[in-house]
Amino acid sequence: MNTHKISIEFPSDILLTINESENQLKKRIKLSLAFRLYKLKKVTIGKGAQIAGMSKFEFETILSENKISISNLDIDDVLNDIDNF
Hints:
Structural class: mainly alpha
Radius of gyration: 17 Å
Mean pLDDT: 90
Number of strands: 0
Strand content: under 5%
Low-confidence stretches: none
Shape: elongated
Helix content: 55-70%
Distance between the termini: 39 Å
Number of helices: 5
Largest sheet: none
Order of helices and strands: HHHHH
C-alpha cells in the first residue's frame, strides 16, 4: 500500500496536556479522521479501517461501540429492497 505523509503542528505541550505519547495521539487522530470521513460518507468501512490502521472487523466493532451505524443504507433503500424481494 502506498502512503502519503501529512504533518500537523500542535502546541509543544500538547502531549503533556493530554497525558499521551506521540504514538497514542497519532492513533487517536487517525481513528477520529476515519470516524469523521465515514460518518460524512466520504469513505467506506474498508477505507476507514485502512485510515485508522486496523482491520475492517476492528473498525466495525469500534463504530458500533460508538453508536455509529455500520450500514450506509437509509430507510428508502431498505423499503426498496423489500419491494423488490
